[in-house]
């Protein structure tokens, strides 16, 4: 019966295996007694098959029975006792008994060096997952980072790579959840020190974690700290043999560094990093976004003519990707028109704005009507700049009416357009009175 059960187990026909192992178990219990080694061995096989069938409560019952028998004659440091404690951890964890799982996990880890290192790392990672589910971010991070640090004592193999990837993913997920966790945020400096240790033992994992921690700082508006971490991550990435994941990570780090510089008003430094993204031949996917941020930085610095030329490049890229009369292309054209107005080139401003309006009226995109109203606001400003008060007021009235229909009377944009219209009315009356007085 035992041999038949083993065949079913090897074929992963677990329910059939359970049936035959239980028959063998009853036979051994009758012949040898409940605590005999053959009985315990059969019980171990039954428990494993229950676990394979996701019947965790049944598996727990069998493992507890075995452990109770062994504890009476053996210490926790015994190999069999250690194995049973190890098996009880995933059983209780997968059955949702997290508090009990933590008890088994702590007991297993407390055995120390006697237990197998790989199993200790698996248990620590599982305990970290339980802490993460309970929103105990600091405790979870401590365990994850311990696992990464301890992997340097393992042989380099495929299993180790999977463990690294899994723990790094867990930390990445945890960092994404940390924004509202003040206690974990306050603990960032200690986490950075631990990640620096990981960087020594596993440069790839360390670089990934430095990069992720940098973005946590950035989301907390701690730009100086974010900049330092992202620069350290970039330096570490550049020392590693490139592959598709690292190339993407490198671009992301450069982008994050540029963003930090922009928020610190270091526009020239930001432009340097954004230019790297624009000129990159490794990954062209960052080019358009980088050009848009470069144009914004130039505009912020009052370099409007350079910003205009860059926005024109952006528009050509957008046209190449999506066609002529698309929302993105037309909104970029409007942006160019508004910048021409800022430098006093009303002729070019009018040409680009009129072209935008014509394109939006041809566009079938559901957003086209709203963008048309926004463009009419710009056109009204142009008419005013050109001294055409009647057309300025008429265009602004059309803009207000369109926004009332599109967004509603109480929308912020509608109210803004309404105030602009009232300003036009007031200024028009002032000009009328002044001309009559003269």
From TrEMBL:
UniProt keywords, alphabetically: Repeat, TPR repeat
Keyword Kinase (UniProt): no
SMART domains on file: TPR (SM00028)
Signal peptide coordinates: none
Species: Trematosphaeria pertusa
InterPro entries xrefs: TPR-like_helical_dom_sf, TPR_rpt
Protein name (record): TPR-like protein
Coiled-coil blocks: none
Annotated Pfam families: TPR_12
PANTHER family: NEPHROCYSTIN-3, TETRATRICOPEPTIDE REPEAT PROTEIN (AFU_ORTHOLOGUE AFUA_6G03870)
